[in-house]
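re the bet — no i am not wrong, look at it urself. input seq straight from the record:
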Amino acid sequence: MDIFSNDRAKDYFLSALEEKSKKLKMRILAYCIMDNHYHLILQNSSERLSDFMKQLNAQYGIYYRKREGGKGYVFQGRYKSTLIQEDRYLDMAIVYVLLNPVRKGEVFDPYRYRWSSIHEYFSGYDSSIVDNKFVEGIFKRKERFKELLNEWMNKDIGVKNTKLGGVIGGSNFIEKALKQFNRRKVKTKSKRRRKEDYIFEPAEEVIRRFEEDNGIEIQDINTNTIKGKRLRVELLILLKDKAGLKYTEILKYPLFYQLKYSSLGKLYERACEKMKENDI
């Protein structure tokens, strides 16, 4: 049924998505809201995917019933989830979701569809819902992003069925995912997971540990030296990956005052590439 039948309903759902993703620390990479369903690509960064989906669907369900009446669940059954490998598989999945309105015949150009995250990439600003800078780092250039949109316009994406559910990825990735899944099953039976194992850490705690590990307070770091620049990059990665901060939030710290918004993204991308090359 058309449960997102007008702009007001879709706008409310986006507000709920923004609220729940911040509350439960979920990193949203892409979204697309159609009249009768929605797609999300996200990183289960807090390991609370089930709670996130329950709360998101419940909040929208209450809104829908108040407006449309009726009884019972609005979303029937459990959500359908697919595990996605990084790199080119994640590229494909993001593009595939953004092309959903084209496949459904709503528009011929995905940029003409208002209710997807396609307008938030390479926009020059920090999105309040999706981690658009992270996605931009995946595609590198807007031209490549558009090329992939054109390439996948009439293609289907292959989802492999496993005991984990649907998986988009190579055979080695599936094998590793199955091993990790089996290890987690054993651990959760015998050991209770600590809170810090499944949620972003407070930025203050990340900074405190960084200062302790390096024997220096961040206000004393001299970024005019090679060592100072290296330490700044290390803290940037920690604040992005461990604390889950966006670039606009990182720029509020004095250590990063001298940098431009666009420079942070480039520094982060280069550092991540170097870490991959060195298998760190």
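see?? The radius of gyration is 21 Å. told u. also The longest helix spans residues 49-68. so pay up
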